[in-house]
Amino acid sequence: MKKEIAEFIGTFTLVLFGCGAAVMAGDAVGQLGIAMAFGLALTAMAYGIGPVSGCHINPAVSFGAYIAGHMNLREFIRYAVAQCLGAIVGAFILMTIVKGQLAGYDVAVSGLGQNGWGKGYGAGYGMQAAFIFEFLATAIFVLVILGSTQKRGAGNMAGLAIGLTLTVIHIVGIKVTGVSVNPARSLGPAIFAGGGALGQLWLFFVAPFGGALLAAVLAKMGWLDAE
Q: What is the extent of the structural domain holding 102?
C-alpha cells in the first residue's frame, strides 16, 4: 500500500495548499500566487513521494500512464481511488479550517476553490471554451510528464519541469475554469461546495481524461521517445 498511501498524501497536499491559497489567500497573492501554490505543491510532492509512487496525484496522469503502458489496469484503479480519497479529505480539512473564522465562512456562498465555468464564475467563459482549455492543458501537462520522466528525459529536473508546467497552466487558465487538469482536484471541493460545482463536475472528468488519452497515444506511438 506504500504507493497508494503516497498518492493519497500527495493529492491531499495539492488540494489543501492549492485550493487553500485560492480560498484563504487569494485576495492577497492574486492569480499568480495561486498558480505558484499549485505548482510548488506539486513540485514538492514530486521530490517527496516521486521515488515511492511516481507522484501522479491525478487520475488523468495515471490514466495516461496506463494507456502508455507504464502501469496495468489494477494499478490505475488503485491510484485513482487513493487520489480521489486524498482530494476529498484535503477539501474537508480545508473546509474545517476556513469555517473556523470567527466572522464565519459560508462555503455555499464563498466556495472552496471548486472548478467551474459560465456566468458568475471567473471571467465568465462558456462551456466550449472551458472544455477546450481543460482538454488541451491536460494533454500538454501529460505530455510533459511522460516526456520528462522517460529514461533519457529530464532526470532529477523532471519534478521542476512538471511543477512549472502546472504553474503556467494556472496562470493562463484560472479565469477560465479555475484550472482542473485533474479530476480528483475537482471532485474534492465540489463535494462540499455542492450546487453548480457538482452539476459541472462532468467536464472536469471528461476533458482531462480526453487530453490524457491524446498525450498517451502520442507517447505510445513513440513521438516522445528520445533519440
A: 2-220
